[in-house]
Amino acid sequence: MQDIYARMNADPSISFVVSAGDLTSQGTIEQLDRFRSELRSLQVPFFPTLGNHELGTEDGAAYQRRFGRANFRFVHGGMQFTFLDSASATIDPVVLGWLDRWLAEGQNHTHAVLMHIPPIDPFGTRNGSFASRNEASKLLARLAEGGRRHHPLRAHPFLLCVFECRHSRLHLGGGGAIPERFDGIGRHYLTVDVDPMRGIAQTGVVRIDPD
Amino acid sequence: MRTLLTSAALAVALSLPGRAAAEGGKPPPARAPLEDEAPLATPNRAKPLDDACAEPPPPRPFATSALGTVTAVIPGLVVHGTGHMVVGDSKTGLRLLALEGVGLGLLATGFVPIVLSGASRRIVGPAAALSVVGAGIFAISFLADVYGIVAPVGGFGAPPRALPILQTAIGYRYVYNPVFAHRHFMVQEIDYRTGPWRIHPSAWFAADDANSRVRLHGAYRFAGPRPEAQPAVRDGSFLDLETAITRHAFTSDRFATTTGELALAGTDSIWRESAPRCADRSPKCPSAGPRKPVRTPSAVPRPTWASSLLARFAFGMYRRLPGSPRGEISVIYDHRHDDFAAGLKVPGLGSGVAGHFRSRSTSFRHRPLGRSGGGCRRLGLRRRIVDSVSPWGPAMKTKPKPKPFRRHPRRLDRARAAAFTMMFGTLLGAPWVACLDVAEERAHRDETIGKGAFGGTTLEVVDGLAAIQKARNRGGLAVGKSSFHRDQGDAQRRRPPDWILTVENAFPDAPFWKQERSLVPWSRNRSRAKSGPKTMEDSRFPAVLRLFRFARPAVNPSPRGASPCSATFKRPSIGCRTSTRA
Questions:
Q1: Is A82 at the interface with chain B, CB within 8 A?
Q2: B446 touches chain A (CB under 8 A)
Q3: A161 part of contact set with chain B, CB < 8 Å
Q4: pLDDT digits (tens, 9 = 90+) for A168-180
């Protein structure tokens, strides 16, 4: 990760980093501690939620002890960022209740929603998405109801694309566990320019390694 | 982790006999599987039973059968076909072993590229289909081995060779999904066949929620049993072209989905009966050789324009045990993710991609409902409507009540009945245990993360990522990526000590609010004061470490324990509130 962090540190326009999970391959305590140790070289705040590869140890409890909540939100620069735990290909009903409250409280903000496994996979035969299409539709319907732009971001199938879905623009970023091949994209991270009034203004790709 | 029943169904089916029964006065045809059932392959019979060959061959000795059953499981779970080899049917055993190899080969051909390519979008479609088919064949060869040993000669039943014109069903279904409010459904189905055409509308209406699913399913049968009077088909194998459109309205959740499907579905047996073996009495016995009435599933990938990979396979059998109603039992793997039961949810890494398992059992009561008799096109349950599926008599036989198990030694009957119960009880029960609340524990942990207490003071992370992470014995609370310390210097001077909040991973301009008053950072990017407690070095977090110092909250004398002090990070991502308990 150090080469990626070095690139990020060299970019003064990056104010913070978000991650939609799969920080490790198995979520073991050693891997989590190593990730946290390496994270110390990053000079901007780092806000992650967990991915399914963090569930390999204690069903994510080890991750939560080290990194905190799996579901949370904050407002920065007039934009609300919400992190949801979809590592099990679903959103717990308790979290859906929190999301309703967060959506109501953040009505005046452009809203970025981050989760690991996306509600839908644009490549349906892969189905790297929610276990239930009905649950996915329910979540997307809620996000679309707010009247403001919502931007779900996720990382699970390790691809990069942007598409429209139920009035919400879905940004798909690269993951870390098993990189997707033959997609023309190797290790990379996304830069997202956000504007509180216009939402996500621009998305760029910084390539670290070729495919 | 709660494990709960996904769904349970109870339905009553009403059947109208086919024309064969109506016009010819023959007994009614056997019931056809409802659409929801996976296509099931049927036992193969090269030709209808000849009267001279109606007597089944003698059953296997009990000891041989028991040993075969055990070896069909261990080591049959790894080496499929072991059970048949042990009882002397090496040919079938080797076929099952070959089938296992085919299944493993397809599974490896499909799954290994998925793993190596990180589920590349360019290959994942066919690779996933191969994986599903391979896994299905692998499971089938194992189950077929066990079934072939456990079942009596002729099997527990036989497939229908003619279908009713009309079937209707009305019933109740319970659906549990913690994400949705609906639980109780009334279900109605009609299944009408004319010639090769089939139309099958169905509707689900929730009784406790505004939720409904309406589905129109149609099919054209290229080959297989039909309702018309015709020469008996060789077996229950069929090939259908299916299409369906489904409208599912989640009114209370304010969305609806519409799904179109186009599918090719079929069944076939995985082996044909070998050359007639007439080991016993009569040279007129060309078809009285050992039959393997194994209903083999099909695994037909059904791509649809909805860009979903739909595939399903099943293993099932017709059943008829002494004293129990006749019917069918099947265990089905369904890869679709848009039904009430969708993808498999499991703790750990693997949720989402796989489909679900389900079981289906239908029973036919002999007691008639409504009028029965020779009339055609009349709704009603026919007496002995499934007599034709009995393997111990000629097809469409009406008169006798076959008691096949009585023909065998009683001990063997009991053993086989017990084995049958164990085998299919396990198969039927396994899909009912599903993990549906797989993220529940993590959500509950989120509720407790970020809350802590020390020395009568509680600290709560109101918002953001921060969570209580560690506590210092002589002065501290620690929160998430922050730590909270009491200033030892203050303590030594015997005045209320100050608290020092250390926040890791914070924005450079993160303010800290306490009792509606912003606190100036006590220290930023520098080492701690000499008198302060030793903490981590700032240089390790040069830009994201924040330190705040403020007076320790006074104890509130209020008996109600109202918090006299609160301190909160208003932004950007870490917030905490402290309060002192009375």
A1: no
A2: yes
A3: no
A4: 444 444 445 566 7
Choose, out of A25, A88, A120, the residue to mutate when testing the contact with B (most B CBs < 10 Å). Answer: A88
- The CA–CA distances, whole Å, from B175 to B209, B255, B432 equal 12, 19, 12
Q: What is the pLDDT of residues B162-177, one digit of tens each?
A: 777 888 888 898 888 8
Nearest-angstrom CA–CA distance, B176 and B181: 8
Q: Inform me whether the pLDDT recorded for B19 exceeds 70.
A: no
Contacts of B481 in chain A (CB under 8 A): 68
End-to-end Cα distance, chain B: 37
Across the beta sheet with B451-454, what order do the strands follow?
B451-454, B457-460, B577-580
Find the distance separating the first CA and the last CA of chain A, reported in whole Å: 17
At A73 the pLDDT is 87
How far, in Å, CA of A143 to CA of A149, rounded? 8
- B:469-498 residues touching chain A, CB 8 A cutoff: 469, 480-481
Question: So what's the pLDDT on residue B524?
Answer: 43
Residue of chain B whose Cα is closest to the Cα of A134: B338
Among chain A residues, the shortest Cα distance to B546 is held by: A45
Residue B232 is predicted with a pLDDT of 63
DSSP string, B383-412: TTTTGGG-TTS-TT--S----GGGGS-HHH
Instruction: Write out pLDDT tens, residues B301-357.
Output: 333 344 677 777 777 777 665 555 667 777 788 888 888 888 888 777 777 788 888
Instruction: Average the pLDDT over B398-417 and give the result.
Output: 51
Helical segments of chain A, H only: 2-9, 29-39, 61-67, 93-105, 133-145
What is the phi/psi pair of residue A146, to 5°?
A: -60, -20
Q: Is the pTM of this model over 0.90?
A: no
Are A72 and B446 within 8 A, CB to CB?
Answer: yes
Minimal CA separation from A51 to chain B, in Å:
9
A117 part of contact set with chain B, CB < 8 Å: yes
CB contact under 8 A, B572 and A73: no
Return the residue matching tokens 């870490």. B574
Report the candidate in B438, B447, B441 with the shortest Cα–Cα distance to residue B179: B438
